[in-house]
Amino acid sequence: MFYPSLLWEMPKSKEKTIYLTFDDGPHPLITPKVLEILARYNAKATFFCIGNNVKKYPQTFELLKKEGHSVGCHTFNHEDGWKTKTHDYVDSVSTANELIQSNLFRPPHGKIKRSELKKLSTLNFLNNSKHYTLHSKLKIVAWTVIAYDWDHALSPEDVYQNVIKNAGDGAIVTFHDSIKAYSNMISALPRVLEYYKNKGFTFKSIDF
Fold first, then answer.
1. Annotated catalytic residue, options 74, 149, 176, 177
2. Is residue 176 among the annotated active site residues?
3. Please, which of 66, 88, 106, 201 could form a disulfide with 196 given CB 3.0 to 4.6 Å?
4. Per-residue pLDDT, 100
């Protein structure tokens, strides 16, 4: 409603599709477990990575790409856009994307000021450089359904029900490959995949 320029869902098509996304990784133990689950269902996903985690765990990051998943930027240190100066926020995205090299970006917590959104919508990252030019290349991705897997007040069943009650064809669904979300995510994810597989859905990554 407030940010119509963000991508909230993918176009519907004859082939029923869910677009799974994972925020806050990569994590050297959790992310490979997610990849194993996705592989069992021939599912592709999009991982919005924190730059500092990519720097610390480059092998895990490379594994994501090797297995055919798409990647996006999630700032360098998971900055809150509402509490960060616009220049610093844009610099965080730029620094992270030197490592990630993607035209996809998701703001942590979905919190982003209009000034940040305006600046980021004009950025074009080139040749592993912090230099950017005025050219609309960065696609800012939100979500249709957020699993709330990080919320310890919820059970894996709550997370599962939240997704299946709200996600349909073209939905962008957000999970987290993080320590905080692990117990809920690792229990709910296979059930979500099984549910939609049985209904004839496929699972694709976001690519532009």
1. 176
2. yes
3. 201
4. 94
Q: Round to whole Å and give the CA distance between 89 and 79.
A: 7
Fill in the DSSP letter of residue 160.
H
- Judged by DSSP in three states, 58 sits in helix
Residue 128's pLDDT is 44
- Compute CA 77 distance to the chain's CA centroid, rounded to the nearest angstrom: 15
Q: Is the pLDDT of residue 1 over 70?
A: no
Contacts of 77 (CB under 8 A, 6+ apart): 50, 51, 52, 92
Q: Which residue in the list 23, 24, 149, 177 is annotated as catalytic?
A: 23
**Residue 86: strand, helix, or coil:** helix
Q: Cα–Cα distance between 156 and 39 in angstroms, integer?
A: 21
Gyration radius (Cα) of the chain, Å: 16
Using alpha carbons, list the distances in angstroms from residue 20 to 106, 123, 154: 14, 25, 20
* Helix and strand element counts for the chain (H, E): 7, 8
**Residue pLDDT, tens place only, 146-185:** 999 999 999 999 999 999 999 999 999 999 999 999 999 9
Q: How far is CA 88 from CA 24, 80, 115, 165, 173, in A?
A: 19, 11, 12, 38, 28
The tokens describing 169, both together, are 């064809």
Q: At what angle do helices 58-66 and 30-40 cross, to 10 degrees?
A: 10
